[in-house]
Amino acid sequence: MQKKAIVLYSGGLDSTTCLAMARAEGFIPYALSFSYGQRHSVELEKAKAFASQIGAEKHLIVEIDLRQIGGSALTSDIEVPKGREIDDEIPITYVPARNTIFLSYALAWAEVLGAFDIYIGVNALDYSGYPDCRPEFIEAFQTMANLATKAAVEGEGRYQLHTPLLQLSKADIIRKGCELGVDYGLTHSCYDPTPDGEACGRCDSCVLRLKGFAEAGLTDPVAYAKE
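Request: output the structure for the sequence above.
Response:
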């Protein structure tokens, strides 16, 4: 019998690839997205439109207003950095505790569904330096998950966090997605899209995405704003 897996699914390049990989690895994917007050909400519209097409058995969208907390260019009126040199400094696009919050919801839904596998598309190579994308964080959360849930404590199973993209370059992620038939035209990655939903081409996320397609020898199918 196929096992269920929760897949954190933003509608972006990485999470879409992750969903396709979960399905390819034999799981029934349950996609979990968040409307959290993000300025780049066009990614959520992509997720709503294409989750089932990409292979999700069910798509759940949870609403959390992280704009009440702020502290990030993605959830407040702070300007999104453009054209910067990506380095080891944690950028202002980091959303405080975002992956901790998202994984907590994923864990709760997994327990209700009787699933013990959670996929998250974190990456420790071509990424913007977020601390909640590191292997140490994932390992710590998995340990916590097996201490904090009724299902694990009563021996029904052990929770496992799957991070298949963790050590892949963006180019390798794109190549893998193409092998699995992912249509990247159905995804969105930009932190600061135009009112028409076009990618800016200059934020960290756009820069990393464009670099990945270039290194993979492919053309990004999404629309970018003209300078």
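The two ends are 52 Å apart (CA to CA).
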